[in-house]
Every structure is written in C-alpha cells, then in structure tokens.
C-alpha cells in the first residue's frame, strides 16, 4: 500500500477546497444544469476540465472513456452511452463535445488489431478496442485518412501510408476520423436530436499547430469544412480550427 499517493490525493483535495469560493455550490447543491457534456479520452495527459479552464462546479458534465467513445452496448444493441444520454435528457444540457487527442493509445491498439488481429488481453480493454476497430478499419479504406492527406494547419500530414503501424501521422489522422464517427453516431441518436455536437482534437504532439494543449475544432454538427468552421468560430478564434484530413 502506497501511502504517498494517498497523502498526495488528500493534499490535492485540500488545494481544491481552498480554491473554491464560499458560494461555489450555492446554485448547484440540489440540482445541476451543466451547459456542456464532454466525452474525452480517459488518458491521464488530457484533462477535460483543464483544457477548457473549468474551475467552478456546474459547468461541465464530464465523461472519460477509452477512445472517447460515446456509445455502449445494451442487450446487443449499440446505444448512446448513459453518461451522455443522461445530461442531454435530464439536466437541460444542449451541447455535446467529443474530444479526441493526438497520440491516442486506444486508436493505436485498434490499428494494431486491424493489422495483426491482436487485441489487449484484459477483457474490458479488449471490448473497448473492439468497438473502435470498425471505425479504424473504415478509416484505413478512406483516402483522406491514408492517402496523401493534407494538413491545412501547416503540419506534416502528407505521404501515403506504407504499412508502418508506428506512423504517428496515420494514427493522428485516425484519431480525427474517430472523432467524426463519434459525432455522427451521437447525432444519429434520438437522445441527442436537439443537441449541438462539436468534435475537437486536443493536440499534445504539435500535429495541428505549435501550442501544446490547444483544442482544434474539426466537426460542428457534421460540418467538416475548415473554411465553414472558421466562419463559425470567427476570425479571433480561427486558429482553433484545423484538420489532418484532405478534402
């Protein structure tokens, strides 16, 4: 038993308590009405609250899943995950954001499975990777993902795929492809019929730009065209729009 980790957790909680204003929970003790539900990869390097500078309770309903998946299997049917469906249906939340990230290990594992048939040994991890496998296989047949994709942000995403599973540019193009597929799945579910759905990629490898920790809008309710997305966010925030996929 590692008492150092326990002590660190409790000390961090003390810091959290000290940072809260005395009235932080006055509006939220008995109910919540978060403006946004966020589905992000559960990777420890990617802080959902941190990336959007959320330092107050009640703003973000956060769900972390391997590969930022918005779905779950219930009675053999793939449905919208409860952590997404609940806030959309019960807390008046009207915006869903799906956040992938560069260097995603889950996407990498699904790519390995697609190439070799090998899966992680843990049953729960395998199930999550299996859910990503059809998305990755679809991406591997998409010329925008594997064939000479152009990075409109100026990064190097060009070049045909040559069978190198360690190719980070392919992996990150598959990450973006997965975000689009998760957005599309959510938009096709009745629970999200009245929601606005945005897709982002969190960049910690300089794939989209030169700012570690920046999020890049790649999808807005199915709209993927960078010019249209730049018009949507406005000139001041146009540097938050990017794509690694050719058009």
Main attributes?
247 residues, alpha/beta, Beta-carbonic Anhydrase, Chain A, two-stranded antiparallel ribbon, 8 helices, 7 strands, globular
Write structural notes for this entry.
The structure is a single chain. With 247 residues, the chain is of the alpha/beta class. 37% of the residues lie in helices and 17% in strands. It is built from 8 helices and 7 strands, in the order αβαβββαβααααββα. The strands form 2 sheets. Strands 2-1-5-6-7 form a 5-stranded mixed β-sheet. Strands 3-4 form a two-stranded antiparallel sheet. α2 (48-51) links the parallel β1 (36-41) and β2. Its EC number is 4.2.1.1. Keywords: Lyase, Metal-binding, Zinc.
The largest β sheet comes out as:
5 strands, mixed
Order of helices and strands: HEHEEEHEHHHHEEH
Count of separate structural domains: 1
The total strand number stands at 7
EC number: 4.2.1.1
Cofactor: Zn(2+)
Family: Belongs to the beta-class carbonic anhydrase family.
Enzyme class: lyase
Please provide a brief summary of the model.
Its cofactor is Zn(2+). By secondary structure, this protein is an alpha/beta fold. The chain has helices at 3-19, 48-51, 82-90, 105-116, 123-140, 143-146, 168-187, 226-233; strands spanning 36-41, 60-65, 71-74, 77-80, 95-101, 196-203, 214-220.
Question: SSE layout and pairings?
Answer:
Layout: H1 3-19, E1 36-41, H2 48-51, E2 60-65, E3 71-74, E4 77-80, H3 82-90, E5 95-101, H4 105-116, H5 123-140, H6 143-146, H7 168-187, E6 196-203, E7 214-220, H8 226-233
Catalytic activity: hydrogencarbonate + H(+) = CO2 + H2O
Protein name: carbonic anhydrase
Family: Belongs to the beta-class carbonic anhydrase family.
């Amino acid at each position: 038993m590692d008492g150092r980790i326990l002590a660190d957790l409790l000390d961090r909680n003390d810091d959290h308590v000290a940072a809260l204003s005395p009235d932080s929970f006055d509006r939220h003790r008995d109910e919540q009405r978060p403006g946004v539900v966020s589905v992000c990869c559960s990777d420890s390097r990617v802080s959902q609250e941190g990336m959007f500078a959320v330092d107050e309770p009640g703003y973000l309903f956060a769900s972390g899943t391997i590969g930022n998946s918005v779905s779950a299997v219930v009675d053999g049917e793939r449905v919208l995950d409860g952590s997404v469906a609940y806030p959309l249906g019960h807390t008046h939340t009207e915006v869903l954001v799906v956040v992938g990230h560069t260097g995603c290990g889950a996407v990498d594992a699904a790519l390995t499975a697609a190439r070799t048939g090998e899966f992680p040994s843990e049953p729960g991890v395998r199930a999550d990777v299996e859910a990503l496998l059809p998305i990755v296989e679809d991406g591997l047949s998409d010329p925008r993902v594997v064939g000479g994709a152009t990075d409109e942000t100026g990064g190097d995403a060009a070049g045909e795929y040559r069978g190198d599973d360690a190719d980070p540019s392919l992996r990150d193009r598959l990450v973006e492809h997965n975000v689009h597929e998760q957005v599309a799945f959510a938009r096709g579910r009745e629970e999200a019929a009245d929601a606005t759905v945005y897709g982002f990629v969190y960049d910690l490898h300089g794939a989209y730009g030169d700012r570690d920790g920046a999020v890049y809008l790649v999808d807005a309710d199915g709209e993927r065209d960078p010019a249209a997305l730049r018009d949507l966010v406005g000139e001041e925030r146009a540097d938050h729009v990017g794509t690694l996929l050719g058009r």
